[in-house]
Amino acid sequence: MKYVVLFILAALSSAAFAGSELYVSTEGRDTNSGSLRRPLATLARARDAIRELKAKKGLPDGGVTIYLRGGEYALPETFVLTPEDSGTAQSPITYAAYPDEQVKIVSKRAITGWKLLAAPYPAGLPAAAQEQVFVADIPKNWCFHFLYVNGASQPVAKRTQSADWVRVWKKLKAAGPANPEGRRITFQDGELVDVPSNGDAEISMTTAIWWNIIAPIRNVNAAAGTAILDSKCTVQYANLFSYGGGVYNLRNALPLLDEPGEWVVDSSAGKAYFWPPDHAMEGKTVFAPVLRELVRFQGDEEAQGWAKQVEHVNMTGLQFLYTDRTPESQYDPQWLTRNAENPDAMIYLQGVKNCIFDNNVIAHSGSQGIALDHYAQDITLTRNEIAFCSSGGIQITGYGPGDVDVNKRHRIERNQVHDVGLDYMHSGAVSIYGSHDNRITYNHFCNVPYACVSIVGMKCDQMNRADAVDTTDSYGSKQAMYQARWGELEKHKPFDLMASRSFLHSGDNVVSYNICDHYMLRMEDGAALYTWEAGLNNVWNGNVGERRAGRGFTLYTDDDTLNNVLSDNLFWTPGNPIHDNSHNKSNVFRNNRISQTKPESYDEARKAIFDHAEKKGLWRDTIPAAQ
């Protein structure tokens, strides 16, 4: 009888929702009607209630707003929206924070039961860490990559915590060729004693002075000092040392746990280790993220002929916090990995059109903040704060070079993107590949290890011959470097500089009136505004910024970059100003002022950008503390 009553209540609750507003609360129930007084409990139930409404009555004029009441919503799985969850231009579907309430959508798994680690100590634990380190049981085979204690992100144990890879990190002794068994690398003497072989240990390693990977290692042979580099990131040259590669920092192994604040995870044993700086764990809250994506909009892909997309779905006023990342050994072979960045994202949009993300926080992502991948058109990102990402802020990636042109016309305006590329150092605030007619305007980009905005493509000689692609992953595969559509390219060969441009789909972008502060902080051979092998007629004008230290340039047109216009950009920097490395010299540089001292009218230019953005509604500027 109890189950019959519950069934009737559920049926009544779904039938009761027929209006333009639906409510979700951490104190709600999914058997409720979804009214303000009787809210639902989960995003998934709200999504399903709208599906039921559309099937029975259709969407009301003006659409539906799902209001989330204040609180923290820990997702058990990625929240996925498909074409059946779409709104229309006249009736959009909006997921919004209830006015004046903070809504946090998170991935968190608490780690509890911490005890002081007692003898006999596990192999390799440094003497300094004995009687200092605490241990907790976790589910076996769970290898997380980020740990938060009392609201603060803690550093994984590393050979050195210094970010200065040029001067402090060690260099491999040798590196064998990529091959189907994996690339064998040789470490400095004594580095691998008591380092595990199960893939928990990783190295952050340069493959060039502008790229780094974070690769699991396996088949560790401590006596020989060798291991297999287990990476499916396709940015490894045949000679790993050719362009400054092979500089590394070993991470996540007990022999490295030698400083307060560090942690290690041993997934095989089901153990987490942490050295609290105050020598106590009582009263501390500890968690690690589990999901690699919080939200995915997934429309039809190429196999379905892109027949249906997720359309007219908006998200506003929400806080998306804490995700893990996909290890490089587990990369999807369909992913693009040419930028040496983790291509996953906290918010992943694929097969989408006419959607808006406004006034959200996207923070503490284990990979990208937000990705607009493959079929993505007319997406608006405004007033969002994107910060503290292991990889980049906003990644826009269409299909590889070929006939398919389905990623375009995005509006990226008045966002604040800062402190990104925390692990993947080539990552920038905005990265574009295979996408055109985008408008990147009035944003504030700050604290990035590489470029603030980059637009890149593929070399024409490599489009002519697949064997000309000069980088691979650890196993010799090249495809993910560009995801070129070789069958389509074959029909159009041969390519020269001009003939290749229309198949890159990365022209006619406008990057204007952005504030770019503290760029090129870690990597080399890049710039605040950077382009390489991209499409025609990209415009970079009126951008302003400053930095006190760093490497690389401010404006950089690299290799076969054609017909770009760079004008009226104003930067205050001690670094190098402009580098036009293009072979054709067709780019136009006009009235750019880049100086080691504050340029004339610098303050006025910054203020003009800020004032314009403020009139239209400025970016968010407060990242909430972890809880």
What does this entry look like structurally?
With 627 residues, the chain is mainly beta. The protein has three domains: 69 residues, no CATH class; 175 residues, no CATH class; 269 residues, Pectate Lyase C-like, CATH 2.160.20. The protein is built from six helices and 52 strands. Strands 1-2-5-25-28-31-35-38-42-45-48-51 form a twelve-stranded parallel sheet, with helices on one face. The longest helix has 15 residues. 53% of the residues are buried.
Oligomer: single chain
Number of domains: 3
Structural class category: mainly beta
Mean pLDDT: 94
Q: Into which percentage range does the β-strand content fall? A: 25-35%
- Distance between the first and last residues' Cα: 41 Å
What ranges have pLDDT less than 50 throughout 5 or more consecutive residues?
A: 1-16
Strand order of the largest sheet: 1-2-5-25-28-31-35-38-42-45-48-51
CATH fold type of the largest domain: Pectate Lyase C-like
CATH class of the largest domain: Mainly Beta
Shape: globular
The biggest beta sheet reads: 12 strands, parallel
Which range best describes the helical content: under 10%, 10-25%, 25-40%, 40-55%, 55-70% or over 70%?
under 10%
CATH architecture of the largest domain: 3 Solenoid
Count of helices? 6
How would you summarize the topology of this molecule?
Layout: H1 2-16, E1 21-24, H2 43-56, E2 64-68, E3 71-74, E4 79-81, E5 93-97, E6 103-106, E7 109-110, E8 115-116, E9 134-137, E10 147-149, E11 152-154, E12 170-171, E13 174-175, E14 183-186, E15 198-208, E16 211-221, E17 226-229, E18 236-237, E19 247-251, E20 263-266, E21 271-274, E22 286-288, E23 295-298, E24 310-311, E25 313-316, E26 319-321, E27 345-353, E28 356-358, E29 361-363, E30 368-377, E31 380-382, E32 385-387, E33 394-397, E34 407-408, E35 411-413, E36 416-418, E37 430-433, E38 439-441, E39 444-446, E40 453-456, H3 460-464, E41 471-472, H4 486-492, H5 497-501, E42 510-512, E43 515-517, E44 527-532, E45 539-541, E46 544-546, E47 553-558, E48 565-567, E49 570-572, E50 578-580, E51 588-590, E52 593-595, H6 602-616
Parallel strand pairs: 1-2, 2-5, 3-6, 4-23, 5-25, 6-26, 23-27, 24-27, 25-28, 26-29, 27-30, 28-31, 29-32, 30-33, 30-34, 31-35, 32-36, 33-37, 35-38, 36-39, 37-40, 38-42, 39-43, 40-44, 42-45, 43-46, 44-47, 45-48, 46-49, 47-50, 48-51, 49-52
Antiparallel strand pairs: 7-22, 8-9, 9-21, 10-11, 10-22, 12-19, 13-14, 14-17, 15-16, 15-19, 16-17, 18-41, 20-21
